[in-house]
Amino acid sequence: MKPLLRRLLWLLVGAAALAAISYTLTFFGLRPVKLIETGLLAMTPLALAAVGECLNERAGVINIGIEGIFLLTAVIGVYWAEVMGAGIYGILMGGVFGAVLGGFLGVLSTYGKADQIIAGMGLNVLALGLVQYLLMAIWAFPGIHIFPRELVLLRITFPTPLGNLRLSPVTIAAIVITFLGQLLLYKTLLGLRIRAAGEKPEAVDVAGINVNHLRVMTSALGGFLAGLGGAFMPLAWFGGLVKEISAGRGFIALAAVVFSGLDPMLALAASFIFGFAEGLAFSIVVTPGVKEVIPFHFVQMTPYLVTIIILAVFLTGKRFPKALGRPYIRE
Amino acid sequence: MRRKAAAFLKPVAESAVAVLLGLLGGALLMAMYGYDAFAAYRALFMGSFADLSGFLETLAFATPLILTALTFAVGVRAGLFNIGAEGQMYLGAIGAVIVGGAMSLPPGIHLAAATLFGMLLGAAWSLPVSALKVERKVHEVVSTIMLNWMAYWLVMYLITYHFAQPGRAERAIPAQPTARYMVIGASLTTVIIVAIAFTLLTYFIIWRTTAGYELRIVGYNPDAAKYAGISSTKATFLSFLIGGLAAGLAGASQVLGRPPSWTVYATMGNLVNMGFEGIGVSLIGRNHPIGIIFAAIFYGGLLHGGRFMEFEVGVASELVRAINGIIIIALAIPEILSMLRRVFRRRRGEE
Fold it and tell me: B300 and B307 in contact (C-beta within 8 Å)?
């Protein structure tokens, strides 16, 4: 429990630093509420994917194909939203398609005994090409697709002392899902089995539970959450689709997972920090007085730089499941 | 003797099966959207392999892929998953623009200096990855991708603000005539000789020197390496260093050795994704320098032929990248051959 406490303390320090940054930025005409809004939007896909990844890594399967799932479900989500005429169907379809992709990787990793890192990277490379192909095949326009505004998911307004905070319902869902994930992992029998499948799959097998079934299931669940995140980006955040829409966020989510030591709550916290860094970058880009001095290219680098720095500073003493990344072969 | 032949044939057969699966997957994707897959593939392979100028162009496409694949392969040999070729390649390209385009030097020296500077910048961009890996145990998958994106924005910035060609904002300053490799034919230049020489040199280092031997031991069995007193730190740095030099050369080759532009476009469209494509090329070539050369020629053919496919049948040429992804996934499954054999045997048994 002690390292957990220490981590939480560090997070508090981080939160205080972020508050100080937001306060300073008010002098440049930035509104803290807007900043938090953007930060929470940027957090959502990271948190969804990271919590999902925590679950499937606990069961012993690494999925580094989150980036690919983000890209593909963003396209499929927009397509389905256009077919059904409402954004929410698109986001759900993103989840379903993400589950298919995650489950597919799960099957390869278990029954196929595949090298999980290579298979996941294959999915990323596949997505890089397929997204551009699909944009041409479906909408006959290269690299970008703008869909009707009505499809963008509406946000819910919360009045706060600093002004109205507009949150996407998906963001709230992501936070709820994180709590549910934490409960599932630590307070249920299924969670115990998931954790055991990653630590000592033989024990799970001896108890009469199929390790491979369990792993495919968690992989599909992880893919489902990543898929929600992927479809969230165009349908609840950007309002448009470009071929590089995920811009490395799949890997930032992985960084959040590594940071958290496979703990959903900490993964959410890390996602918020990374999201806030991105929100900050976005806000700075458009601030008069700042944007003329600092080229936006450097601002665009900040989320990646923040991710590396945070990993380098905090990544100590993390313990990962023993059977992580290895297929279970019965002796 | 027979065993040696089998050890050579099995990986070749596995790569062939994976490539076929990739092409099959591509055909399915085309059929789904009503394209004529047969006509598309015919246009692709006729365009890239059927005549000399097409084949020379294929080789021009293969040149940077040999090098980015080498980056990945040297990583794998040391037990690392180095996917940073993309960003290191961007740095190599801008390095070549800085020395080859923006500076004037005597002929001969100019070309060598521009090439070397590109390679050094590529290697410099790989240093933080190995330092973070060794000092802070940050996994290279995450750090390389973050550095790739930072390299993207850094090079974008440099092209836009400092090295844009005056009057032509759509591209950076082209390499000066004194800093260009000789054109062989089509857009193939003598830089391919440099690429192959670098590949052979890497082969020599990895398979014929002590440092290379230690690198392979660390990759093959880290515990044994530790027991034998071999430093994994050294192996990690060496692997990323060679990888960075290779990726830097890949980027430089697109500036100093690729007509008609001899430079980087402001969108970086002539560079983007070449690093990631190297992963597939390396895996098809079984992460072996010699295998990589052949795999790169095959994949270079897909890239070049993809343009014919787009022109004649209307299929977006990016489909080729999706095919690459399917090939990688297929190659991730170690027992794909025996699995297929089992499936066929079962089917025959039913008849």
Answer: no
Tens-level pLDDT at each residue, chain B (351 residues): 567 777 778 888 888 888 999 999 999 999 888 888 889 999 999 989 998 999 999 999 999 999 999 999 999 999 899 999 999 999 999 999 999 988 889 988 999 999 999 999 999 999 999 999 988 888 888 899 999 999 999 999 999 888 888 888 788 888 888 888 998 888 899 999 999 999 999 999 999 999 999 999 988 888 888 888 888 899 999 999 999 999 999 999 999 999 888 888 888 888 988 999 999 899 999 889 999 999 999 999 999 999 999 888 888 888 888 888 998 898 888 776 676 677 666 665 544
Q: Which residues pair with A160 in a beta bridge?
A: A163
Q: What is the pLDDT of residues B275-326, one digit of tens each?
A: 999 998 999 998 899 999 999 999 999 999 999 998 888 888 888 888 889 9
* Chain B positions in Cβ-Cβ contact with residue A67 (cut-off 8 Å): 145
Distance CA A328, CA B338 (A): 19
Question: Which of B146, B147, B327 best probes binding to A when mutated, by most A CB atoms within 10 angstroms?
Answer: B146
B187 residue type, one letter = S
A129 neighbourhood in chain B, CB within 8 Å: 318-325
Mark yes or no for CB contact A251/B327 under 8 Å.
no
C-alpha–C-alpha distance, residues B315 and B116, integer Å: 39
Can you name the residues that pair with B183 across neighbouring β-strands? B189
d(CA A124, CA A250): 9
Supply the ipTM of this predicted assembly.
0.88
The full DSSP string for A29-72 is T--HHHHHHHHHHHHHHHHHHHHHHHHHHHTT-----HHHHHHH
d(CA B150, CA B173) in angstroms, rounded, equals: 22
**Nearest chain A Cα to B134, which residue?**
A312
Among partner residues A118, A135, A298, which is closest to B331 by beta-carbon distance?
Answer: A118
Retrieve residue A190's tokens: 């299924």
Query: Distance between CA atoms of B101 and B118, rounded to whole angstroms?
Result: 12
- Helices then strands, counting H and E runs in chain A, come out as 12, 4
- What residue type is A257 in one-letter code? V
Alpha-carbon span B212 to A97, nearest angstrom? 44
Residues of A in contact with B148 (CB under 8 A): 248
Q: In angstroms, rounded to a whole number, what is the distance separating the alpha carbons of residues A124 and A110? A: 19
Residues of A with Cβ-Cβ distance to B81 under 8 angstroms: 117, 121
CB B209 within 8 A of CB B217: no
List the beta strands (DSSP E) in A148-205.
Answer: 156-160, 163-167
Question: How many beta-carbon contacts under 8 Å exist across A and B?
Answer: 159
CA distances from residue B314 to A13, B48, B95 in whole angstroms, order as listed:
55, 17, 36
* Pairing state between β A163-167 and B164-165: unpaired
pTM: 0.89
Q: How far apart are CA A223 and CA A217, in angstroms?
A: 10
Chain-chain contact of B276 with A118 (C-beta, under 8 angstroms): no
Identify the CA nearest to B130 among candidates B53, B43, B71.
B71
